[in-house]
Design a protein that fits this description.
The complex is a heterodimer of chains A (79) and B (461). With 79 residues, chain A is α+β, with helices and mostly antiparallel strands. Chain A contains 2 helices and 5 strands; from the N terminus they run ββαβαββ. Chain A has helices at 21-33, 50-57; strands at residues 2-6, 9-13, 39-43, 59-64, 71-77. The longest helix of chain A has 13 residues, at 21-33. Chain A is globular, with a radius of gyration of 11 Å. By secondary structure, chain B is mostly helical. Chain B is 72% helix and 2% strand. Chain B has 13 helices and 3 strands; from the N terminus they run E-E-E-H-H-H-H-H-H-H-H-H-H-H-H-H. In chain B, a hairpin with a 2-residue loop joins strand 2 (18-21) and strand 3 (24-27). The longest helix of chain B has 33 residues, at 212-244. The chains are: A alpha+beta (79), B mainly alpha (461). At the A-B interface, strand 1, helix 1, helix 2, strand 4 and strand 5 of A face strand 1, helix 7 and helix 11 of B.
Chain lengths: 79, 461
Amino acid sequence: MQQWQDEEGWHIDVRGLPPPQPLVHILRLVQQVGAAGVVIVHHDRDPQLLYPELAQIGWQAERIAAAPGELRLRLSPLP
Amino acid sequence: MTQAPAHKPRPSPRAALTIDTPHGPRPARTLAGAFIGGAKGRLLPASIPLRFFGAAVVYHLLAWLALAAGSAQWAGFGGGLGWPLAALHLVTLGVLGMAALGAGAQLLPVASRQGATGAGALATVWWLYTPSVACVALGMALARPPLLAAGAAAVALALLVWGLLTARNLLGARGMPGVVGHGWAALVALLLMLLAALGLVGIWLGLPAPPRHALLALHRLLAPYGFIGMLTLGLSYILLPMFMLADTAPERHQLTSLALASCALLLAALAAIGIAPRPLQLAAVLIGAGAVGLHLWLMARAARSGMRHLSGPSWLLLRLGWAGLLASLVLAFVWAMRWPLPRLGLWFSWSLIGVWQLSFLLGMLQRVAPFLAAMHGAPGRRARTPSALTHDGALRLHLACHCVGLALLALAIATESAWATLAAAAAGTLGALAFAGFYLALLARIRAPAEGSGDKARKQT
């Protein structure tokens, strides 16, 4: 698992992790980033467990372009 | 976690734009917590797990009613056909089995990182299993072996089909060897348990069969500790960290607990068929205690380290369930030591089935069902949150009634009182109605429009 920051926000690469570890690491980063941040998730599958948790904390997920074999999500607080 | 420098490949500019679908590209949705394109590919249709859970809710109510019908016999129950046996199997097959089939069908593919397949076969399993459980219970209650046998054969067939679907999934599993290993152990136990159960039915029909005491001992061992127990322990390694937002237990610890539990089951099974009964029973209990101790330590560690501290009725039921599991092992030790304890068999069944498995499963179900329902939030609408789908008042009432019901059952065992049994059944029935209210509210809220419905989205992390 890797984590870094650039001008788009915080990135987290959870590819290869078994469930529910992606969920835990992503939500941990979301908690650290706080309400003003954006988190870009690099995943190898659709994180089905994540969406109800995001809804629960008032965040949204948006799929963005990614290389083949990768699923990339942009997470941000609901407006 | 590593902090990588900024020279990592930069994400492409936001493309929020299109998603490839079988029907060509379409705009991505950007709804809170809503599923985005293809997200449901790894999920069964919601109707599959929810129909199993719904049947479990109905059988929960019927189990308490059957106990009321058999209240005069229950406190002195020592085996044999009748309402007490029917009530027991309405819990084991109707509630525990039904919920385990639904949860296992959906959650094992998540753990094994495979697409969920076999929805049609699972629906067939449900249609076969659900009336067959009623048939078994009725055959027991009315003491009609042919009816019991017909139901048992259909139940066995349904469980075998489910077992084959699960085995196919486990064969293709990637990762999570601890959870997958528990799945395999549960399947082996299921197969042996079914053989023992069918042997017992054969005896009721007057057919030649192995000795009844051996079959009964195997059945009593492999159904709760083997099939349901192994499935419960294995799925806990994914569900509890998920709900607590905690790190998963190290695989080596999961596998150690699995090895100990499997060894205990094997020794206890050998003892059940008459091989060195007393030393093997003692060894099984002690090794099983080691497996359970390790498992509970891992769960406690997850609870301490998780980002979310569980609370409310579900958490209380889970802890009550774990206490019941420990109590069942203490009672098994008493039994293995041949210490005299009046009505030991009833105390053992009470702690094992009532306190451990029923409490734990109902506690888990009240978290899993809203979570799965929320995962199936309809695209194009704001997603439901699990908390918005949960009727808290109904669950609090259920918890109170469940605890009172179990306490009154204990009183009934201690005093051999039919009135206490009847009072326990009344409390349990009220609790089961409350649980049914929770489930009906969940189904109603899934169907209701989410906008303006008072979603309780809140900051929890």
